[in-house]
Amino acid sequence: MKAWQIVSDGGVDALNLADVATPEPGPGEVRVKIAASSINFRDLMTIKDPKARNLPYPRIPNSDGAGTITAVGAGVTKLKVGDRVASCFFQDWPAGPCSVDVMNSALGGALDGVLAEEVVLKAGGVIPVPAHFSLEQAATLPCAALTAWHALAEVAAVKAGETVLLLGTGGVSIFALQFAKIMGARVILTSSSDEKLERARAMGADETVNYRSTPDWQDAVLDLTGGVGADTTVEVGGAGTLARSIAATRVGGSIGLIGVLTGGEINPTLIMRKSLKVQGIYVGSSKMFADMNAAISLHRLEPVIDQTFAFDDAKSAYRAMEAAGHFGKIVITA
Ligand SMILES: NC(=O)c1ccc[n+]([C@@H]2O[C@H](COP(=O)([O-])OP(=O)(O)OC[C@H]3O[C@@H](n4cnc5c(N)ncnc54)[C@H](OP(=O)(O)O)[C@@H]3O)[C@@H](O)[C@H]2O)c1
């Protein structure tokens, strides 16, 4: 079978499509025929800079996959051949708080990922796919969607009528838009593109701000909230946007610290003065994934897939993410 591998620090161009043995599931494991894999900014960063993450070579990239179980190992009772499942980003985070052991079980990082025709995963490291989803749609859920869910449902516990601030229109933020709307929140969303802002409004974003034409977008958010600020901010920008996100979040509000898209320096004083809750978020547990899928199924949400690439053309998918023209998710199909 075929698998894409990171074999050097040569970036996307150096990704290697290898012929490897089809893996056999051991006790407590299942083998999944991958139908689709979605990519995340983190996968691109991992391919571009595997040394910073101490990756051994070869390493199969990507955390997010969905497919059909083709074999079950000894002791697996709750899953069977033919079940449609998605991978859990962390193979070892059933529930509860994050830990070092959890972090050592990340697909496409500490462990081989899912950009292969077949993969072996822990039985507890897969989740049934929402019934109304295609496998291509299900492949969008493990990282971006779950991170957005964790920020809004677990950390912020958003209440109807609250204001949620979202940055950009990538995978995490577009899922966050969908979740915030089913939670009854008012959404303010920023983007570099007026066209993307229009698409976000069509999906339910209540107010939008172009962060390129309005570089002081935090002031626009304050204007839109009567000078108060958003109750919750889903921070995907990182150090380069955090100061503005802090300014745009209300006193006593919360910021889910998620992204590393931009660099810069942070002055923590305002976090203290505004009594903000700033919580680092690292994807989420299998329990959170199951809770999220229940909400997705109830509301029949559909992920936004911007572009789909064939398995053999995986390099083009990463290049598309690098170009940042996408809205929502980029998917590679088998
Ligand atoms: N901690 C975690 O568990 C976790 C999980 C998932 C993702 N992440 C991180 O979250 C970030 C987003 O991930 P993703 O997969 O959603 O990436 P993505 O799909 O590539 O989305 C990136 C989008 O962010 C927007 N953006 C870029 N620079 C911005 C800026 N200065 N201000 C506001 N928005 C900006 C752009 O939107 P426009 O084109 O609309 O301007 C861009 O399309 C990445 O840093 C990723 O590593 C972390």
Automatic annotation (TrEMBL):
InterPro entries: ADH-like_C, ADH-like_N, ER, GroES-like_sf, NAD(P)-bd_dom_sf, Zinc_ADH-like. Residues 10-332 form the Enoyl reductase (ER) domain. GO terms for molecular function: oxidoreductase activity. Gene3D superfamilies: Medium-chain alcohol dehydrogenases, catalytic domain, NAD(P)-binding Rossmann-like Domain. It holds the Pfam family ADH_zinc_N. PANTHER family: PTHR45033, ZINC-TYPE ALCOHOL DEHYDROGENASE-LIKE PROTEIN C1773.06C (PTHR45033:SF2). This is NADPH:quinone reductase.
